[in-house]
Predict the structure.
Amino acid sequence: MPTTSSPARPAAAGRMVAVNEMTRLIRLLFEVEREFVRTASTLVYRVGEPELKYLVCQHLWESAGHARFLRERGRELTTFGTNDAVRGSISRIFTEAVGRNTADPLVITAGFYEVLKPALLAAYRHYLKVTDPLADWPSKKLVEEFIADEERHAREIAPFLKDVDAREWKLHLTQALDDLGGWLGQETRLPLAAHYAWQHEQTPYTHPATCNRGKYPICSGVFGLDPTEDPIVRPWLTDPKTDARVIRLMVYVWLMMEMDAIDYLSTVFIETPTAPFDLHYDLARHLWDESRHSQFGFRQLPKFGVDLMTVEHSLDLYNILVQMPPHERYAMMTMEFEANSFPTKATVMDRVRELNDFEADTLLAFDRNDEQNHVRYGHRWLPEIMALFDEKRPTEQFVKETKDKFYQLAEIYGGKVPHSLPKEKRLTGEKILKLAGVSK
Ligand SMILES: [Fe+2]
Ligand SMILES: [Fe+2]
């Protein structure tokens, strides 16, 4: 029987046009947030101020959260798509924003925070303006929250950027963004000049050979055997004769040194551009956890009379790991350093509990809980990260051979950072005894 109705497809597409238009914008916002996480993570080990590292880690985590909620909402709508891929027109701007590894890291920070993120805030505001507040209430609620977050991020970063002259770099990025007419194409497009040169096409980004700790003194490592040289005297941690107050100070130094983990873990995102978003999401969480662990030490040590300018920062782990590809870095972190830290930390926690220091107990308990999750992340993601690099060895064999490789590379790249301070000036086991008011 012949039918007289019009063809089904065009009518169906037309029927959903209002939803599809908002879905298109949510998809763009998701891609922008995920690219911010992938690329702004390169700021962490390039900036020197710990407080700025911590803040960027926090913002990366919040941005990963925005991306996740946007994707969740997007998937309720019909045309969001089933993969996490980012279109080239967005990713190339973020890749450009990473700059060269020789650039002033604060100028690069200003590019992200004074061009790309304000444009994201403008995009969220545009979304609120054009969507229907009742029909699209679920998206509206999210976007309202993200606007408040973006405004707060701008306030939180401002003190770090107030004396930074980044006009030239910001203009460079603004031009790239104007070519799109803003992240949502909501503004008038200003096509790129023919002579516009994409820096990353000329010089692809590579990680700096060492990480930046700004004004703080540095060294190769903080664990050792000599109390006149090293702040964490390994045998003291597990020696029942060590005073618990000494152990508490040493574990705070240990926690503060998780700044290592912040710096080397944040190198992984940029090198895994095709990773599923869930991998970057868990890495962002991992990164933020480590930044809080490091803050435990950074904030507690001064309360016990430690001058942070006497605490040398250990750079060996970054310096060695950056010589390895990302999947090997991640394997060392989760399957070696983290997986093997539990027995000593358990002993330390039991000793610290003698002090009835509720704050110390709390920090150590949350640290332990987080670390258990990190090892879980490792088991979940290591095979996937290996696949991204076409690594076909069985996981167990890969981990074992990666450990061997790490210890070989440590011979070449480890132990090369001289002490910034003479032993009389730096925090050592002996000084910790004095600060704790005990004699060994
Ligand atoms: Fe940690
Ligand atoms: Fe960890």
